[in-house]
């Protein structure tokens, strides 16, 4: 089975960006997240369907995994999607401890981890939440250029498949349609 790119509507993201297999993913990481303020041509992610390592509090998020990531439905979105596919781009997310408050994010491209002196990326639960609804995504480039590419991850669909209050706000900030990688069987059923 090969993957294909399909267009999907954000208005019903809870029906197609879902868990398709059980994993041991912690509740704070379940659901669908909007990358609010992300300057790149991608909008939403899910960590569903990924293997969670309970020993190391770690997972690897493939950018081009089936229904893991959404891309803008335009030339820049296509370019980012194709570049991610060619490079097998993914993120290794390693939490500091069992509290799951703070994580180190390591981009991996062509199988090579990006050194922290190039990009020191982190994810931490927003100081006013501890349920996983808000995460600050921070970057420090080349040891001293902070804030380039930073954004807030907002949960828009909870672990029960219900839209959160952040969902309507997200709809105002995105185009109605996005690109997503789906299994061929999913593409035929759409």
Radius of gyration, whole Å: 16 Å
What is the 3D shape? globular
Number of helices: 4
The SS-based structural class is: alpha+beta
Count of individual beta strands: 13
Low-confidence stretches: 186-190
Distance between the termini: 16 Å
Helix content: 10-25%
In terms of DSSP E residues, the strand content is: 35-45%
Structurally, the number of domains stands at 1
Whole-number mean pLDDT: 91
Task: Provide the succession of SSEs.
Answer: EHEEEEHEEEEEEEHEH
Largest sheet, strands/sense/barrel? 13 strands, antiparallel
Structural descriptors:
single chain; 190 residues; alpha+beta; 13-stranded antiparallel beta sheet; 13 strands; globular; disordered C terminus
Description of the molecule:
The structure is a single chain. With 190 residues, the chain is an alpha+beta fold. The protein has one domain. The protein has helices spanning 13-16, 75-87, 166-173, 184-189, and strands spanning 3-9, 32-36, 42-46, 58-62, 69-72, 90-95, 102-109, 112-113, 119-125, 134-141, 145-146, 151-157, 177-183. Strands 1, 2, 3, 4, 5, 6, 7, 8, 9, 10, 11, 12 and 13 form a 13-stranded antiparallel beta sheet that branches. A hairpin with a 5-residue loop joins strand 2 (32-36) and strand 3. It is globular, with a radius of gyration of 16 Å. Residues 186-190 have low confidence and may be disordered.
